[in-house]
Amino acid sequence: MARKRQMKLSAYLVGTGMHASSWRLEEADPGASIDIEYYSKLAQTAERGKFDMAFLADSLAINEQSHPNILNRFEPITLIAALAGATSRIGLVATASTSYIEPFNLARQFMSVDRISKGRAGWNIVTTRDLSGNTARNFGADTHFELEHRYRRADEFVDVVRGLWDSWEDDAFVFDKARGRFFDPAKLHRIRHKGEFFAVEGPLNIARSPQGHPVLVQAGNSESGQAFAARVGEVIFAIKYNFEDARAYYKEFKEKVAAAGRNPGDVYVLQGISPVIGASEEEAKAKQKRIEAFLPEETIIGFLADYFKEVDFSRFNPETTAQEAGLNTLRAANPDYGKHQPVIARENPTLRELYSLIIGSFSGDHLVGTPEKIANTLEQWFLEGAADGFMLMAPVLPEGLDQFVNQVVPLLQERELFRTEYEGRTLREHIGLPVPVNRNSAGSLTR
Amino acid sequence: MARKRQMKLSAYLVGTGMHASSWRLEEADPGASIDIEYYSKLAQTAERGKFDMAFLADSLAINEQSHPNILNRFEPITLIAALAGATSRIGLVATASTSYIEPFNLARQFMSVDRISKGRAGWNIVTTRDLSGNTARNFGADTHFELEHRYRRADEFVDVVRGLWDSWEDDAFVFDKARGRFFDPAKLHRIRHKGEFFAVEGPLNIARSPQGHPVLVQAGNSESGQAFAARVGEVIFAIKYNFEDARAYYKEFKEKVAAAGRNPGDVYVLQGISPVIGASEEEAKAKQKRIEAFLPEETIIGFLADYFKEVDFSRFNPETTAQEAGLNTLRAANPDYGKHQPVIARENPTLRELYSLIIGSFSGDHLVGTPEKIANTLEQWFLEGAADGFMLMAPVLPEGLDQFVNQVVPLLQERELFRTEYEGRTLREHIGLPVPVNRNSAGSLTR
């Protein structure tokens, strides 16, 4: 009998939590984002909860308005290399950009971490959105690439990286001591790539890992981003704020995967969730209020003024509704804004709520409440076609992860919606992804 | 009373050892260069021996003739991030090139590892020698930069990196929860660098570590390389094959440091050594013979033919002397060759010996013998002005490191030439280097 389909869980690890005010809570350690013991404990907690993976986001520029948790933090590739030693089963996903790093260096570092972790690495592929040009100016450019250009470059980048990962066939190393033959030269391959953006000869100086190569994670949201994700992503990270939007997105995205000639069942969609968990509904709501209260008015208004540019926010306060501020009829200059428009039109959030929505720590009513309520929401989303699993973006860490592991995971396990033990050792085994065929081994069969 | 001056020790960690045949020994694990437990054990052994640091070399290209230990190996920055968790005191130095990586990425990854290791990281700055163009072709270029260009770029690169490391003053983070003030914006600095090679605005999204920033290690050997090392290096890695050469180099190099306006006492010269240790002189010599015997004739002759290009080596065998082959009168096209010419002129090595010399696993008579003999050699070099310490490039690993730690280190400790316990926690504390002043803090005093 086939095992029941189970959901995938990923823990988004970020300092004191997703909420911009999380560092201000009495119990918060504001130095968390630079504390390796703290991150090790988070990863160990997620592993205790049998999570498929821990996820590290990234940005390549900051300014005075940046979220406290990202002002001073570890670089994610080095961080997952360190976390590999603090854990033994959980997958470790680091974000890295195709716009500001050489493909040879990226291919190599990710395969190195995949080896260090014995096949537990993942690469969250981003192209870097950089409206302000802050990132470009850290890398010798005045303005960032346009969206189309970025994804064309990302396509070529990923092709080069995958080619480099296949430099050595899996049985290339013969280790024949007697004859002094370390490897079989016929099984070492150069990609000799010359494309629009890159010229890379190869070979890579590291061979494939126990899972073949790192899992490719993608969170593109624009039209181009989704098309790219449908072509190359193996795990997809999306954020939708209600069931209908999530289900519509899930259906459409899987169709895009099929249209790209891939099996939709081989691509796993994780919906981002920021639950606020309490012993009772009231306790959860009070918790949410407590942290929202720490958001200073000038942070909210300053952020939105910067985000919308052409609107004069000085007339508004955090309790002004989007409708009162005229945001529901605004055409968005910011491509990011489009994804929020349906929610704004339907729910008419206050500016305080809108702020949380945009910075990604919004917790809708269906995710504020008891562990049972949270488990019910996840069960519905999972069983009714809105998700293959979830990215836990806890508003407050470590509390939000501890609670989820201690109180929600057991409910999901009771309902046989989530594993009670790791079945395998690699991230691909956890997710259920096949080991990618080495393009050179496959080729040699037909030659 | 001032403590007696003590030597610095660094362990060069590379798979089965420096010797090209080390993987062929019966006891060797040819998969060592890709085994994280193996590397963790090496680093732990060096730490048990109270070594100042472990050192990871690098290259950004391979070909069919490359040393088996570098064909398939970890990327060093990710490797030291992993080793940080397997050790608690020893410094961890990774090699990275100023020619093929963005300064923002490098500054960030090294500071991240310096944070992960709590102030134990070092950066071995290389500009990448690439006569074949193999490296350039992995990074979109057909030919590599010339020497002069490389070091001009390296100067600017290091300046940018150090500037980025100083983005945050040490007391920038005020963590004032009550007032919602995470940091003091006056203590966040952008470098706004626009130079010949790089334009980098900053700031970096990670603050300085407990040791300020990673220790800067350099091994430049050419005229330009030594000048660069004298300007920026804090620990210098040189390889000289006898006492006179080592002492002459040491004296000249320290003069260059003084000429560059720095205190020669703040720059530590480590001489590379490849000792072969035996219970008796005979045992050590037999050991050396045993491993040399594994070097196939075609490896030696093929390597030298490639190295010298204009010489026809097909007429020679490994026992031909350099004089018989006419190498002692040859003008070197390979800039690397210059450093070997005095040794070749004086010692007239066989081609087998010359091969070992060039690939860096040559063990002169003074380093083949009992632990006492090795300790005597190091004592002489250290006390008579040839070295501030040593880089142990063991021909065979783990044996060469185990033996050195178990048998040579205790002798050095008895003679009070080496520490019996770590005095501090950071690599700078081990070496005796000051925490670098933050350029912005210093500036603010005079504003």
UniProtKB/TrEMBL annotation, chains A, B:
<keyword id="KW-0285">Flavoprotein</keyword>
<feature type="binding site">
    <location>
        <position position="222"/>
    </location>
    <ligand>
        <name>FMN</name>
    </ligand>
</feature>
<protein>
    <submittedName>
        <fullName>Monooxygenase</fullName>
    </submittedName>
</protein>
<keyword id="KW-0560">Oxidoreductase</keyword>
<feature type="binding site">
    <location>
        <position position="151"/>
    </location>
    <ligand>
        <name>FMN</name>
    </ligand>
</feature>
<comment type="similarity">
    <text>Belongs to the NtaA/SnaA/DszA monooxygenase family.</text>
</comment>
<feature type="domain" description="Luciferase-like">
    <location>
        <begin position="29"/>
        <end position="381"/>
    </location>
</feature>
<dbReference type="GO" id="GO:0004497">
    <property type="term" value="F:monooxygenase activity"/>
</dbReference>
<dbReference type="InterPro" id="IPR016215">
    <property type="entry name" value="NTA_MOA"/>
</dbReference>
<keyword id="KW-0288">FMN</keyword>
<dbReference type="InterPro" id="IPR011251">
    <property type="entry name" value="Luciferase-like_dom"/>
</dbReference>
<feature type="binding site">
    <location>
        <position position="58"/>
    </location>
    <ligand>
        <name>FMN</name>
    </ligand>
</feature>
<feature type="binding site">
    <location>
        <position position="95"/>
    </location>
    <ligand>
        <name>FMN</name>
    </ligand>
</feature>
<keyword id="KW-0503">Monooxygenase</keyword>
<dbReference type="InterPro" id="IPR051260">
    <property type="entry name" value="Diverse_substr_monoxygenases"/>
</dbReference>
<dbReference type="InterPro" id="IPR036661">
    <property type="entry name" value="Luciferase-like_sf"/>
</dbReference>
<dbReference type="Pfam" id="PF00296">
    <property type="entry name" value="Bac_luciferase"/>
</dbReference>
<dbReference type="GO" id="GO:0016705">
    <property type="term" value="F:oxidoreductase activity, acting on paired donors, with incorporation or reduction of molecular oxygen"/>
</dbReference>
